[in-house]
Batch of 4 targets.
Target 1
Amino acid sequence: MMIFILASGYLLTVYLLIALAKRAGKKSTSASAALPTHENYTQEASVQPKVTEISSVR
């Protein structure tokens, strides 16, 4: 009889954790959709090559 009580408690706990994970997943996706992404911004920095001449004096 004790094994059935423990098994039902385990199943209930797993069910609740899965339900909470699904609920948290839905909230995070809707909240992240409202945040701006870097695709909306243009890159304004330009990269210019910087070449220096090194001469060794001996």
Target 2
Amino acid sequence: MTSPAIHPDAITDALPDLDAEVACEYALCDHPQCQCEAPAVWRVTTHCARNIDELRAGRCSTFSRPICESHLEDLRDIIADGLRCGPGTCMCGRRIAQMSDVLLEVSAL
């Protein structure tokens, strides 16, 4: 017994588009006015609140999200501003002494 032939175009159509643009997920909330229109170019792993509910509850975690160039600059500025007065402590008790304590990894998409 032979299996039916699979048309090559069907295989190609079933594969994901690896060149597709990915949305920037910088915003902590889902409100339409908070969403970024720029495509993400970086995958950023950070230690911080994942969303507004975690921020309000004083919870944090380590996670990755796609971010555009301008929001990566904003994130770096926010972290740098927080470190200007010296080391600090995260909501979870983790010591934050340098940029890499919060911004754990940045890689191109």
Target 3
Amino acid sequence: MNPFTRFEWGPKGINPDQQEVDELIENPNHDFRQAFHRPYRWNTNNINEPRTLIKDNAYGIDEQDFLEDVQDPQKYYETLLSFTPIRPWFDAEKVVSILSRVAINQKTSNSYIHRLITKELTDVMEFGQRYEWNADNVPEDKRPRLPDVNGLEALRILGDAKLGFGTMTRKVEKQLLACGLVWLLQPPQERRKPTFWQKIFDSTTAQPGQLLYDEELEWRLFGVEQDVGALVEAVERTNKNLEDVSKKMDQLLSPKHEQTTPKRRQFRPE
């Protein structure tokens, strides 16, 4: 049984509500465009199977109207953040830096940040289960690596395939709830941590969810992710081509395509 099922997280959760989004769009707490003043190495890869832009997403936004014709990565993310704001307690520059490495129109589930965070949350789940979600069972030198809070906010902005930009993917939402980590996305002064996480991080100087930010290391990891992603896409294309060839061969060999040799006319002597 999940020990966090009935935990009261309070008004601030994984995703902002409609009123919060409307207020941030109308009166942003910080000018996110300031985050674009520093140079970023934008991901300019072309995506073979782009995400579907939703006409009426979970916040009532017509994504097609805003982004359908935008091809420049910086302009794309500036436009996206104008209707899917970064919440004020996150580091806007770090969020934009993470977003800059995701190609425009890429499906969130195919992005490097989604793969990284789902892996980290899977490891956290295994950690908790190993010690039966009892902090007293956890050795002093054992602490899980939690997802970076700015990475989580960037992932929320990239959004869900069905609900659109601004809504955390269903997979990561389930993982956060199962691991009792909703508090990572709450304002620091309003975080409601379950007892397990209070004990884990009260006994160490580690700052949960605030990992060291090594940009060069991040970019090396990003390069590996991109290479792997390109390889996976190439394999998928090859498999599809092979399937097409196989279907064509099946059609040619099917009975209706068999060519019968006409019988020779038999002549009888008169």
Target 4
Amino acid sequence: MTNEFIDAYSDDQIYLTLIKDLVNDHPVEVAVPDSIKYSAFCRLWVSMAVGSIESMIKVWNTGDELWSDIATYLNRKSNENRIKDLKASFERRGLNLDPEIYKDFLALKYIRNAYIHSDWSPSQRSYVVSRGFPGNMMQFNKEHLDRMQKVYIGLMNGLGMINALNATLRR
């Protein structure tokens, strides 16, 4: 089953990676400070990553018991509880991701929200900084991008495995 939003996010992921490589290898752009380039890459990546994960949860919702605990992520509740419940859903299925992935995903949600809404919540900024990310949209670096990608890949793969298992069980 294809979905335009999941396909779009997948394309965005591919092209952001290609653009990063092109920019870093370009004879003129290579002179641009990494702080400028990687801050832009991170802001775009975090927007795509959080949107993509949330799209997978919404689109792959089968409306039955096999996905119901994951689908509660989209219910109105605090971001902290969303992440806690998502972690519990993964663990119920034997998917024991590094706990740091969930903590970083919460930081990514806060970064994305601050970027999209052009405003930091002081408590969310504090959490982001406590996770080792900058509290300023202009201060990301390559290590931050690598972490963002690790979080995205971990959660994407976990959701993909759950979706595949559910599709098999529904037959």
